[in-house]
Amino acid sequence: MKTEPFEGRRAKLMRNRRLDQPAWVGKFATWLLRSSLDLAPAQVRPWGDGMLAELRFVEGSWASLSWAVGGTCLLLKHSLISFFAGSGGGSAAREPLAGFDEEGGMKKLAAWVAGLSAAMSLLLLLSPVFRQGLRVVESSWRTAFSRPLMSERERKSLAQRARAEHDARTLAFLALQSLPTEESVRLADEAVKLDPGLTWVYASLEVRHRKNPESDRWVEQLNQWDPDNAVPKLVVAGRICDETFLRVPFGQVEASLAANRQWRDAMAAAFRSPRYDSYFGKLFDLDRDVMTRRGLDQPMAVMGALAVFGFPNLGSLQAYEKILLAEGKKFESAGDLKRASESYWTVVRFAQLMQLHSSTDLERLVAAHMLAEGSAPLKTIAQRQGATDESAALAYQVEQWSTAQESWWDDHFWREAYLWNARIAGDSSLVLVLSLGLVLVSVLYLGIRRLRSLPSSNRRLRLAQGMAVAGAAGLLVSSLTLFLSYRPFAEIYSHFLEQRGAHGVRSMTPFFDFWGPSTDIMRFVEFRPFAVSFWYAFIAAGLIALTLMTKRLVQRRLKPKLAG
Amino acid sequence: MGEPSDIRVSPQTLSVLEALLEEPAAWRYGYDLSRETGLKSGTLYPVLMRLAERRLLETRWEATEPGRPPRHMYRLTTRGAELARGKLSQARRKRALARPALSDSSPLTVRLSLTVPSASRGTVLIPHSFKVRLKE
Fold first, then answer.
1. Is B55 near chain A, with CB under 8 Å?
2. Residue A54 and residue B42: Cβ atoms within 8 Å?
3. CATH for B4-98, options being 1.10.10.10, 3.40.640.10, 3.40.720.10, 1.10.8.60
4. pLDDT surpasses 80 at A170
5. Mean pLDDT of B112-135
6. CA distance B91 to B83
7. CA-based nearest residue in chain B for residue A67
8. Which end of chain A is more exposed for a tag (fewer CB within 10 A), N or C?
9. What are the structural domain ranges in chain B?
10. Cβ B48–A67 below 8 Å, yes or no?
């Protein structure tokens, strides 16, 4: 056939355009469509073959790709329908469950699958670990909405019982929960009145409640009760430090503190004290005791108390350490090595005391830093004086700082892993709630329909059945995921309650950071700890297994009917 | 299988029917139909499949030279052509009823606003309107 001049030019133009376009796109398009054709059910395959044959005539590589993508989507849709319906296409492919639904079989199957999944989820409620996980997640939601971990009713009832039984420890436990200042102060006073041995509670609450009207009385009482301890003095100094931070521009805080006689006296007294006790040990004992005695299976209450329990003011410690080191340097420059050493030793001695008696890793880290900072100039002085043994001992103390840092970062890594584990537990709980909602809505719809014998379209019925099955499957997968991802925390908590240590108990604090589903993908990409990958792989495997099981069940029930 | 009259006549189905009805006796390729109707493969083929399923469309394979895959071809059955005519005239009537006031000579006012950079005020909006007439 003779080509007209215009057509010839057009064809040439098209050829040139084709040359400009990457050849791999066209090849990829053919490969894509051919691959999806292999997956397509028999009835749809001729249509796929038709699309593939047409691909040769599509002008342009990108247009070929678009053609292939459209065809692939169509073929995959039919493959999926066929996968679930076990049928090759045609009307069954369009409405895969229609025939079955007429028989009422799908209804039974949906009820069976949904019922089984829901029953298995309910069975998990028998596990104390699962129940505890649910409680922890529920508490984390409370904190997300700035609500106390224990409801007002629970608190009041527990406080009433404690008062009636003269149970000072329970009152102290309640005071240490995240409560409004007035309520906390009242409960703490009641507890200390009943048992003066609980006066240490004031130290924690004093740090937490800045606007405490009883502050001066509490500090005085605390110092009388525990005069040898550095911590009550640090509490006083910490309060002055906080006020200075609010009042003075950031760069002038240290100078302002150095000029404050009251603060310097309090810090000097703290550094001279023969004891260091931040009362964390007492707090853990109190928590264990009250939790066990009162049967409170509420790990978040422990975490809550821990989170609000005040540390000695680290800014205050650092400022005083700097002042002492600067003084030492000044004496050293003036040639007064004796007084310089005294200043450095004050820092070292306090750091050693803190390191020996601290209950938390943060305190240990701060102590290690102070120890290294104080030991470094002492080591130089010892070297200058030819005291090699003393110099070696001091060098060892300086090196301890890098060991402490390594240990801190090692712990930090595990905290990240726990953080993600907590997030998975949190996300699972969200899916659990959504799934439960789906199940309830669909069951309610089906129930009302049955009770009132309402006519309903097949589509609506199938939608309700689908929702019930999907909801129940989601319920099962999310419950299992919550159970398994919470399990390590349950072990840590039980370890804590059995007085076998409180080291890991802080790993549960990520539950306080709960703010919904974990969407901060960048953090995931950045860290991607093994634990997270493992649990997401577990969820994916669970979903695949569930899908395959559902497919088999549906196929088994459908085949005889379709054959009939 | 549903009745032919039950077929869901979407705008896409209508355009396919219209294209097939141009030469009812001629066999058409999928790609040609796609170009004529402007529909992508993912939209066109489900329409063709539905029509074929209801026996409104017949298909056959075109014999090609050896080594080349045969091309799938389509044309309306007699019933299909009848239904297509009916549906198309129905659609045209609906279209005519939907815009009675708008004839080819009716002027349309088009309003635009332009955003242009201004040295003193950052950007300024300039409203502008003009009238156009529809043409074949």
1. no
2. no
3. 1.10.10.10
4. yes
5. 53
6. 12
7. B41
8. N
9. 4-98
10. no
